[in-house]
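Practice problem: predict the structure.
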Amino acid sequence: MRTTTLFNDNWLFTKENVTSTVTLPHTWNAEDGQTGPQMYYRGKCLYSKSFSKPSLQPGQQAWLEFRGVNSSARVVLNGVELAVHDGGYSTFRALLNGALRDENVLEVWVDNSANDRVYPQRADFTFYGGIYRDVYLIVTEVVHFDLSYFGGKGFQITPKLEGEDAEILFETWTTPGGDRVVASIEGVGETELTLTQQGDKLHGVGSLRIPQVHRWDGLKDPYLYHAKATAYVGAEAVDEVSDRFGCREFSFDPEQGFFLNGRSYPLRGVSRHQDRAGVGNALTREMHEEDMELILSMGANSIRLAHYQHDQYFYDLCDKKGIIAWAEIPYITVHMDGGRANTISQMTELITQNYNHASIICWALSNEITLNGVTEDLMENHRLLNDLVHRMDPTRVSAMANLFLLETDSPLVKLPDIRGYNLYYGWYVGDMTDNDKWFDEFHAKYPDTVIGLTEYGADSSIALQSPKPEKGDFTESYQAVYHEHMLEMFSTRPYIWGTYCWNMFEFAAAGRDEAGDPGKNHKGLITFDRSQKKDAYYIYKAWWSEEKFVHLCGSRYHDRIEPVTEIKAYTNLSEVTLYVDDKAFETKSGSHVFKFSVPISGVHSIKAVAGEYCDEMEIAKVSTPNPAYFASAEQVRNWFDPPRTDEMDKEGFLSINSTLGEIGATEQGAKILEGMMSRSPKANQAATQQNPAMQAMVARQPLKKVLQQGGFGLDEQQLRELNKMLNKIPKNNG
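Answer:
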C-alpha cells in the first residue's frame, strides 16, 4: 500500500548566487512582490535538497508530488532531468526510480520570469515565484492508481440524481498488472469495477445506487459522502485512494438566475486571491481556514477562485462548508499566440484534479482576455477549451468572465454555457448607475441569455476618509457608498445568476502604486493582513448574513471638519437608535442602511443600538481637515477651500468641469482631448475609443474627474493652465 510523507524540510534556496536554508512552502516574492513595481524580482531560482534513498521493496516506485510551483519547474535528480512543468497553480509529479541512489541530490529549478507561452504573463496581481505549496514523497507498489496523468488521483466520481435516489458512477485508472478494483461508499456498500485496457492503463467502470440520497445543499446542509477505491493483485490490496463527494443538481435560468436542487439560490459571491501580507502565496492551512471563516461570516455563499487553480485544501473547505465555487485557469488579459498548448494543459489539470469537488459548478475558460482585441487565433483557442470542458466533464458548464469593453454581440460572449461581465462603472469609468443601465439593456436585448456579474469593486485605503466621498478618492467612505448601491441594484434583478465582489481581501499587485500604499490592489473588503474589516464588509453582512449585528461606519474618520456630520449604521435588524454623548438622539426604522445628521461641536461619543446589539465610536469636531485622510493635498483643497477664480466655470465657455462630450463637440476642444488622451497611461484607452457604448458613457464624464482618475499626473498649476485654455473656447450649444 502507498505511503505519503511530507517533504518540506531542509531545502537550500539559491537566488542570484546567495544560498539560504528554507522550509516549504516558500516564495521569494513574499516581500518584494508586495511593495511596488520597482522591487519585483522575476527570474530563475534553485531549490535543492539532499536525502537518503527511501526504503523500497522490489517493484515499488518513489514519486515526488508538487502541489504548486510558480510558474515553470524543472526537476533534476542526481543530474538526471525527471520532469518539466509549465503552470504555477496545479499539482504535478516526478517518478524518481530511474535516477535514485543511496544518497541523492535533488534540484528544482523554478522560473517566474516573463515569457510568451505560459500563462499568466500580464495581469493585475503578483506572479510569486517559488515552491509555495507542499511537496510529498509517495511510495507505491508497481500496481497503483495512476500518478502520471495530469496530477489526478486516478479516481473519478460522478453522481447522477434520479428523483430521491442517486446513481454514483465510478471510474478508475490503474497501472497494468492488477486483477481487481473495488469501489465503496461508506455506509452504502461496495462494487467491483469492470476493467478494460485503455492505452497503457487499466480503466475501471462501475456504479452504486444510493436510495433516499442525502443531498449536498449549500450552506445549510453541505452533506458529503466518503468513497474509496482499492486495487488488488490476487487477494492482496496493493493501493487505495479515497475522496469525498456530494450529490446535488444545479441549473441556470435567464429570468430567475441560479437554482440549487430545484430551488432558487442566488449566488452571493466574492472573489479571492491566494496571498496575504508578509507571506505571499505560501499560505498555511490555518490561513486558508481563516479566509473561509471570514467569507462565511459576511454571509457569502459562493466564491470565484480567481484567476487560477487554488490549493486543494481550499476546494475541500468549499465542499465542507457548502460554498458554490467558480474554478478557472489563468488564461488572462492578453492572448498569446504561442500559449495555446499551455491553456489546454492547465485546463486538463484543473478538471482532472478537481472533478470530484461538489462545490465546483463551472470551468472558466478565461478572464478579460480581450484587452488587445479578438483575433481568430483567440477564438479558436476558446473553441478548443470549450470543447475540452464538455468532453472531460459534461456534468458542469463552461464559463467566461468578460472585459467590460467587450461588445455584447461578440461571438466570444456567446461561446460558453454561461457568461459574466467584469464591470467597474462607478470606479474606473462612468457612474454607479451605469451598472444598472448596462444590465437592463443587456437583459432587454438578450432575454434568453444567462448573465452574471463576475467582477465589480472600488479601491479604498482604511486610512483615507471623506465627508464628501466621490469616485476616485480611494476613501473607505466612497467604497462603502459604492457597495451600498451595488447591493440595491442586485436586489431588483433576479436574472443575474451570480455576483462576485472584487475582492474579499486586498492582494498584491506589484505594478500598482496607489493611495500611498504601493504594490497592492485595495479593492478588498478586508485588509491584506486580514486584521481589519472595512465598512463595506458590513453592508454585505447586513444584506446577506443571518447573524444579528449593528455596525457604525466611519469609526476611523475621527477628526471631522463639518458642523453637521453624517452618522451611518449598517444592520440586518429593522430599527436603530442613535445615542450621542449617552443621550438618545434619534430612532429610525428601515433596512440595511440607517443615516443620521448629527450637529457636532467638540469630542462626542456615538453609540448605535439595534435590538440587543450595539456599536460605539468617538468623533471630534476640528477646525482644519486632517491631511492624513486624503490621498493628496489637492483633494483637501478641492473639498474644503472655496474655488479659485481661475478655476471657476465661465458661462458659455468650456472648463475642466465640462464633460468630455461637450469639449469634444468643439474643434479646438477635440484637439486638446486628442493630445491629452494620446499621453494617457491607461492600457485600455485604445479599446475604449473603439467601443461605442463605452465612448458614449465616457463622454458624460467631467474632464476634471477623468484627469483625477486617469493617471495623467497634472499638478495644480497645470490644471489651472488647462482650465484657462478651455475658458477661451465657446461651448457648442447647437
